[in-house]
Amino acid sequence: MLVHLNRIHCGEPFFAKMAAAGAASWCRLGAVIRPYHELTECLEQVAEVVGCFFPNPDVQDFFLEVHSTFFSNCSRGEENPFEDAPLGLVVWLTAVPVGLIPALVYLVVWRS
């Protein structure tokens, strides 16, 4: 029953909105965030009405289907938003605190 209600009340409106948006915009967060949020809220409300907890295996399966249908080709490609910090900076940010620890321990022991 939950699976059927999820499809009718939540899935069909979401699929219609995604079809209206067009496949070219499925990977743009700004174009899909509102329908996706509405889908999530709808699925949560249906689960509550039926008396099921949220999330549950049926809802998770539905989300997997949605993701495989609409978002399976939305990889970041070669773009890497996070680059490693320069080696000198990493060494400096590691060595300074490690070097301060023995000095602070010495001061605490000396003052006690």
Automatic annotation (TrEMBL):
Any one Pfam family match given in the protein's UniProt record, by short name: RAMP
InterPro entries the record matches: RAMP, RAMP_sf
One BP term from GO: regulation of G protein-coupled receptor signaling pathway
GO molecular function list: coreceptor activity
Transmembrane helix keyword on record: yes
Membrane topology (UniProt): Single-pass type I membrane protein
Main location: membrane
GO cellular component, one term: plasma membrane
PANTHER family reported for this sequence: RECEPTOR ACTIVITY MODIFYING PROTEIN RAMP, RECEPTOR ACTIVITY-MODIFYING PROTEIN 2
Name this protein carries in UniProt: (Atlantic silverside) hypothetical protein
Organism encoding this protein: Menidia menidia
Source organism phylogeny: Eukaryota, Metazoa, Chordata, Craniata, Vertebrata
